[in-house]
């Protein structure tokens, strides 16, 4: 998107308008649920039960549902829990992945290529296939219902190692050798030469990992039990655990849960797209 | 072995350098080993044991496999999962391909970015939030979908509460979430196809359909295979959307394999049975991935 080259074959007939129209209609349809969510969150309970349905809220500045969300549940706590867990996951992922990427890209040690293939092979192991033993481990280690427990399996991802290796491979060996001649230690080279050269890859990994971790649901649900340890995806569910779902509150909570990630996503979209394209082109 | 000995006890500078490289990858290896490889082995082990809630174990051989694999609930869940897949995977891939082809032809870069972003935004939201917003749209009485259908004279449907409509309705949520991701991959790949191919084909008198059939699709072949595999894996593991909305209902019509695994493990604490399912999921995904790779991986050369 942001840095893709100009479309080369531009249609110069009436089909161009039809095509743009079709693409735009699809885009608006895809975007509609967001609009509907935001609009519903501004309505009162009687308003959403009006027949026939009315699209616009009576008062576009009715934020009562948002206040109610914070009153009903410790929703701020949920948001902070998610922010904490996602930040730790993102940072640790960058540290461990860039170290591993450096090792795989620039060193010759026995078994290197086999080990790298094995790491890529981990992608074939679904998380759900290892969740029971992991739960038992967490129980044995006393990490159930703790931040450490929530974040533990999320600390590194295969994609990160792949991304960092790919980025570090492009650094010329001469730079590294020059730093060695200057007397830099291997770890010193990592900090002074490698990390500064792969800033875009680091940004990409930070963002995508934060996003993935923020949206995580399965594992946090398995590992936590007390209300104050809930992450935001679990917090959302607490608005559905009633006989009658108050959709005006639920959508307000959903907006709150999506908003942080959406802001990051919109401002830093270029990096996210890069990550997606990377994961696509490796095939 | 000697090489490894020299890494542990380096003799010279080059050995030390190799050791440094190995030490750099070590944290990642330890992590993946302890979070994926070891637990996977344990899952396989658990599937041969009957584990009492206190932790007492009894080796039962293949009895748990026999129990789970002859259980009609399990196969019903597999059937539901496969049905969901058959709805969502082809729909996602075909729609994404169409959108990417369309976006690729939009000349105005600014507008193309706007439309592309709109397709891409659902990818950033959590599956739980996505599913809950859709549940509201599907709501039979006050939901938007039935309202929109009523405008064109279609009577209200029960959607998530219907035995028949629940699976397509959930599959639609998956399509909505994933379409932007696949579109981005296709769009990036489309940009790498050399323009000369199209020019040459046009001079040879190929029309638009032929260019699509003989140039675009073959050139996108690797990405199409990869996206199909990714979608298959993603949709086979479907859980969040179902758990957040129907919890497997109505009457088990949307019960999926991972839902059943979750309930077995963490509601009834039957770790042995759940481990059989975990092994099944692993083997099934592995087999399907390898098979798909072998069948569809046709090298394209020009």
Outline of this structure?
The complex is a heterodimer of chains A (283) and B (302). With 283 residues, chain A is an all-alpha fold.
Description:
- The complex is a heterodimer of chains A (283) and B (302).
- Chain A has 283 residues and is an all-alpha fold.
- Chain A folds into two domains: 15-67, no CATH class; 68-281, MetI-like (MetI-like fold).
- Helix content of chain A is 67%, strand content 0%.
- Chain A has helices at residues 15-40, 45-48, 64-72, 75-106, 112-121, 131-140, 147-151, 158-169, 173-181, 186-197, 199-214, 218-223, 232-237, 247-267, 269-281.
- In chain A, helix 3 (64-72) crosses helix 14.
- Chain A starts with 14 loop residues before the first helix and ends with a helix.
- Chain B has helices at residues 2-8, 13-46, 63-69, 72-104, 109-120, 127-138, 144-151, 166-190, 195-203, 208-236, 240-244, 257-266, 271-296, and strands at 49-51, 57-59.
- The mean pLDDT of chain B is 89.
- With 302 residues, chain B is an all-alpha fold.
- In chain B, a hairpin with a 5-residue loop joins strand 1 and strand 2.
- Chain B has 13 helices and two strands.
- In chain B, strands 1-2 form a two-stranded antiparallel ribbon.
- Chain B has one domain: Orthogonal Bundle (MetI-like fold), CATH 1.10.3720.
- Helix content of chain B is 72%, strand content 2%.
- Chains A and B meet through helix 1, helix 4, helix 5, helix 6 and helix 10 of A and helix 1, helix 2, helix 4, helix 5 and helix 6 of B.
């Amino acid at each position: 998107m942001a840095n893709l080259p100009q479309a080369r074959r531009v249609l110069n007939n009436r089909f161009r308008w039809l095509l743009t129209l079709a693409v735009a209609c699809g885009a608006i349809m895809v975007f509609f649920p967001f609009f509907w969510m935001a609009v519903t969150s501004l309505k009162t309970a009687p308003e959403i039960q009006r027949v026939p349905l009315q699209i616009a809220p009576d008062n576009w500045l009715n934020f009562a549902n948002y206040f109610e969300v914070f009153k009903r549940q410790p929703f701020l706590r949920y948001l902070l829990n998610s922010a904490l867990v996602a930040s730790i996951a993102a940072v640790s992922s960058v540290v461990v992945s860039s170290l591993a990427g450096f090792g795989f890209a620039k060193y010759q040690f026995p078994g290197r290529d086999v080990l790298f293939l094995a790491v890529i092979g981990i992608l074939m192991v679904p998380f759900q296939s290892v969740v029971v033993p992991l739960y038992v481990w967490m129980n044995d280690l006393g990490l159930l219902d703790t931040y450490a427990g929530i974040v533990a399996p999320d600390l590194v991802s295969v994609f990160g190692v792949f991304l960092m290796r790919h980025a570090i491979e492009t650094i010329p060996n001469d730079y590294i050798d020059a730093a060695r001649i200057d007397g830099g230690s291997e770890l010193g080279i990592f900090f002074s030469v490698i990390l500064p050269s792969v800033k875009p890859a680091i940004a990409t990994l930070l963002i995508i990992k934060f996003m993935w971790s923020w949206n995580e649901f399965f594992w946090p649900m398995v590992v936590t039990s007390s209300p104050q340890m809930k992450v935001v995806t679990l917090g959302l569910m607490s608005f559905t655990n009633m006989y009658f779902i108050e959709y005006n509150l639920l959508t307000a909570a959903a907006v709150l849960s999506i908003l942080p990630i959406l802001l990051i996503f919109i401002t830093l979209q270029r990096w996210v797209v890069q990550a997606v394209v990377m994961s696509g082109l490796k095939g | 072995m000697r090489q490894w000995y020299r890494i542990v006890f380096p003799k010279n500078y080059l050995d030390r350098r190799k050791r440094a490289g190995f030490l750099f990858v070590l944290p990642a290896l330890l992590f993946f080993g302890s979070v994926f490889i070891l637990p996977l082995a344990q899952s396989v082990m658990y599937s041969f044991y009957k584990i009492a809630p206190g932790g007492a174990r009894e080796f039962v051989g293949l009895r748990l496999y026999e129990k789970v694999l002859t259980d009609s609930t399990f196969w019903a869940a597999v059937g539901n999962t496969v049905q969901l897949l058959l709805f969502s995977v082809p729909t996602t891939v075909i729609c994404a391909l169409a959108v990417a082809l369309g976006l690729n032809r939009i000349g105005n870069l600014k507008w193309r970015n706007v439309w592309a972003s709109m397709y891409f935004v659902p990818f950033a939201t959590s599956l739980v939030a996505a599913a809950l917003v859709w549940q509201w749209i599907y709501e039979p009485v006050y939901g938007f979908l039935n309202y929109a259908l009523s405008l064109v004279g279609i009577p209200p449907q029960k959607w998530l509460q219907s035995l028949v409509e629940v699976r397509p309705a959930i599959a639609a949520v998956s399509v909505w979430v994933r379409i932007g991701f696949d579109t981005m991959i296709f769009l990036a790949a489309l940009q790498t196809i050399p323009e000369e191919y199209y020019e040459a084909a046009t001079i040879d008198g190929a029309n638009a359909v032929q260019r699509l059939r003989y140039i675009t699709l073959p050139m996108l072949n690797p990405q199409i295979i990869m996206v199909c595999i990714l979608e298959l894996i993603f949709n086979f593991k479907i859980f969040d959307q179902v758990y957040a909305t129907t919890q497997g209902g109505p009457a088990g019509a949307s019960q999926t394999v991972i839902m059943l695994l979750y309930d077995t493990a963490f509601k009834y604490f039957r770790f042995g049975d759940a481990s059989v399912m975990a092994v099944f999921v692993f083997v099934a995904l592995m087999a399907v991935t390898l098979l798909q790779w072998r069948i569809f991986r046709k090298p394209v050369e020009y």
